[in-house]
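User: Here's a structure from my thesis project, written as structure tokens. My advisor, Dr. K., wants to see whether a designed sequence matches the one we expressed. Can you design one independently, without my sequence as a hint?
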């Protein structure tokens, strides 16, 4: 066979950067001149050869354009076609909304009888609870309908329930009160559609013909089984909110029916997760309709056995074949299948009834006082017998807008992807806890720390303290306590190992006590073990009561108090964070500390100013400065900033002094710290609990080391917490995260104007 050398081939100098028509045409001409100099020489624009060259340049230019265009449509910042943008946003996990509804707070009123035993109180026995889903029509636009998203609950007490007397008796006593409740409503109306489903179909898709579907309320099959919306079909856990009226363990939003503990915090809903195969995802189509997409599994019971075209058998999920060599590699989650991953069931031979909401748009942003007409006939309460009297929206509806344009989709998709829908940093956890829906608990403040292995937590310190103060006559128990102390002090073992060893020693300790529960209780081991913190994430929480005051007490159980965060709220937070926390993160939830205080001020007014009015204006300025929304965990008080604000009050000439305290105005003290007699004292000290250094325990106001006022927070030495220049009040140590609160400003702000 002949061999070919280098000289037998032409070297083509092709420029791959030429992509437009003119460049491609010139490149083709240069190629022909270089490699076919004798074959073709007529490069006249009208020649047949130039026609062929230009046609090839045209084809190359068009192909280059479409390649560039398709590549551009693959990049979110450069894409222009809405279909491609929606698909890429979906790839990032962001679901495009067909339309944005407006939201509004509606105020409902109802008349409830006064208590027969005390007319100054409300009898909540017959007070009503109305389910969510009440529809109300806008007075200015009959096409705009608002639907309540929350139950209207008149059984849960409110801070101003006794402020509005509806009727009185002949003797002038209140016989009924007008109660008001605010609930959130969305600009939408509910509709129902049914689909008849026959034989199973993989990833069955059902399309709702209506446009602007903002929400799927429910999906129920003919057997009464619920189907749940998930973000993606592989998600088998779905959140289930349960109102307290449907929860046997809780009889009111304030109390627990099992142990009869009363909390000052309302938690109307409990949050839990269930694992289910009956699930679907929701997709927005290009024509703004909405489709429901189901899974690929079937329940074969009652179905023709010939159906075997790759469907996941939901009745056989998780079952392995005995004797297989790969048994140990099979998934043990009964909902993940055997070597396969189930994406949920697909409905078959049933009828699906889908309830959904339609509405929204920019026209739904109605002004205040627009929603004032109750529906007719009147809504029937789910509990109680009272009726609704009136409804109004004190503030305008906001948030409504038409469908998202392409630029909005791009920006929201990038923002959604950057957050990763995960809690990693301290700020992530704090934002998520504060973002929990209010119906699961009204979170006021949150503080998060990431614990480092080897650090001694507050719980560990408390545990050590309790062990070192044990006085028991039993030698055996003393020996066990010594072993526990040794375990805790061993720096060579991890926290997890310590806990394992502690549990083992605890079991021995129980046996050694011969069932002497009283002796065990004296050791305080149970309470201290509950605070023994081995978690990687510690979350400290404070909540609002119905008077928007901070509630939380880490030592409530030890003090026999009920002003701690209810367990239902902690459970809700823990369940809520389950879907966001890292797999390696373990979470421990604690009550935060509250440090209440009062303010003394001394100012010099302008010569001709109304001193009484100046004083009132200064008090109001202090109230505004210490609004509870502005106060955070471990936040210092900047006295200099407060004095600057007071200097801006009309009529103020200069500031004598400002004192932040819990009892005495310590500004008037001599060098030894003794009061001079010129200062004032608050009528009631602004603390309930104080720390006894001799016992290492906190005591309430009734104790020997107490002396404060009931229903306040913890004692704090504000004088010692002052910075060297006296301009900053430093917060407590971070081991006891606390928030400063001006709990009762009308009583605890005192001043003089000279």
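Assistant: Designed independently from the structure alone:
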């Amino acid at each position: 066979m002949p061999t070919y050398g280098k000289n037998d081939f032409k070297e083509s100098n092709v420029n791959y950067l030429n992509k437009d028509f003119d460049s491609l045409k010139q490149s083709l001409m240069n190629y022909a001149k270089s490699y076919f100099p004798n074959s073709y020489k007529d490069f006249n624009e009208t020649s047949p050869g130039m026609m062929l060259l230009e046609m090839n340049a045209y084809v190359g230019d068009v192909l280059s354009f479409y390649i560039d265009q398709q590549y551009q449509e693959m990049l979110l910042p450069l894409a222009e076609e809405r279909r491609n943008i929606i698909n890429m946003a979906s790839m990032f996990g962001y679901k495009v909304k067909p339309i944005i509804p407006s939201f509004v707070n509606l105020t409902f009123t109802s008349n409830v009888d006064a208590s027969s035993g005390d007319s100054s109180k409300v009898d909540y026995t017959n007070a009503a609870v109305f389910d969510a889903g009440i529809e109300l029509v806008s007075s200015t636009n009959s096409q705009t309908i608002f639907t309540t998203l929350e139950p209207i609950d008149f059984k849960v007490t409110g801070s101003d329930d006794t402020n509005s007397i509806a009727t009185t008796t002949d003797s002038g006593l209140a016989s009924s009160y007008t109660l008001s409740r605010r609930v959130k409503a969305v600009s939408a109306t509910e509709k129902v559609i049914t689909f008849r489903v026959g034989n199973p179909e993989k990833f069955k898709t059902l399309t709702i013909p209506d446009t602007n579907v903002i929400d799927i309320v429910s999906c129920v099959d003919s057997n009464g089984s619920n189907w749940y919306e998930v973000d993606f079909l592989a998600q088998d856990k779905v959140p289930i909110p349960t109102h307290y009226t449907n929860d046997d363990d809780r009889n009111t939003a304030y109390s627990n029916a099992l142990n009869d503990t009363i909390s000052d915090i309302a938690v109307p809903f409990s949050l839990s997760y269930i694992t289910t195969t009956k699930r679907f995802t929701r997709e927005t189509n290009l024509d703004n309709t909405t489709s429901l997409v189901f899974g690929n599994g079937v329940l074969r019971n009652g179905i023709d056995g010939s159906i075997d075209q790759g469907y996941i058998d939901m009745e056989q999920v998780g079952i392995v074949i005995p004797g297989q060599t790969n048994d140990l590699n099979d998934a043990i989650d009964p909902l993940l299948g055997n070597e396969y991953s189930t994406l949920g069931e697909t409905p078959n031979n049933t009828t699906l009834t889908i309830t959904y909401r339609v509405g929204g748009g920019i026209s739904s942003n109605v002004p205040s006082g627009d929603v004032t007409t109750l529906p007719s006939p009147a809504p029937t309460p789910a509990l109680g017998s009272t009726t609704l009297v009136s409804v109004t929206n004190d503030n305008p509806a906001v948030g409504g807008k038409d469908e998202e344009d392409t630029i909005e989709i791009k920006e929201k998709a990038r923002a959604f992807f950057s957050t990763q829908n995960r809690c990693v940093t301290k700020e992530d956890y704090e934002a998520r806890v504060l973002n929990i829906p209010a119906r699961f608990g009204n979170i006021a403040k949150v503080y998060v720390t990431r614990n480092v292995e080897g650090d001694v937590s507050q719980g560990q310190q408390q545990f050590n303290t309790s062990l070192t103060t044990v006085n028991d006559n039993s030698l055996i128990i003393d020996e066990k306590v010594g072993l526990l102390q040794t375990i805790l002090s061993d720096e060579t073992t991890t926290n997890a190992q310590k806990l394992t060893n502690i549990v083992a020693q605890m079991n021995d300790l129980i046996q050694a006590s011969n069932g002497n529960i009283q002796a065990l209780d004296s050791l305080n081991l149970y309470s201290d073990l509950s605070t023994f913190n081995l978690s990687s994430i510690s979350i400290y929480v404070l909540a609002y009561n119905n008077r928007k005051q901070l509630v939380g007490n880490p030592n409530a159980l030890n003090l026999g108090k009920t002003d701690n965060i209810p367990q239902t709220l902690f459970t809700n937070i823990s369940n809520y964070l389950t879907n966001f926390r890292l797999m390696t993160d373990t979470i421990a939830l604690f009550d935060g500390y509250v440090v209440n205080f009062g303010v003394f001020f001394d100012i010099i007014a302008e010569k001709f100013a109304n001193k009484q009015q100046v004083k009132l204006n200064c008090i109001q300025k202090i109230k505004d400065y210490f609004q509870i929304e502005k106060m955070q965990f471990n936040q210092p008080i900047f006295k200099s900033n407060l004095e600057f604000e007071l200097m801006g009050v009309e009529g103020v000439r200069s500031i004598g002094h400002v004192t932040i305290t819990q009892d005495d105005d310590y500004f008037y003290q001599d060098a030894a710290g003794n009061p001079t007699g010129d200062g004032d004292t608050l009528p009631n000290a602004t603390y309930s609990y104080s720390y006894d250094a001799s016992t290492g325990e906190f005591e309430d106001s009734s104790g020997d080391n107490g002396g404060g006022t009931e229903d306040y927070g913890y004692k704090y030495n504000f004088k010692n917490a002052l910075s060297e220049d006296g301009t900053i009040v430093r917060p407590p140590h971070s081991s006891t995260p606390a928030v400063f609160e001006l709990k009762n400003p009308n009583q605890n702000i005192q001043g003089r104007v000279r």
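When you compare it with your expressed construct, this may help: The two ends are 118 Å apart (CA to CA).
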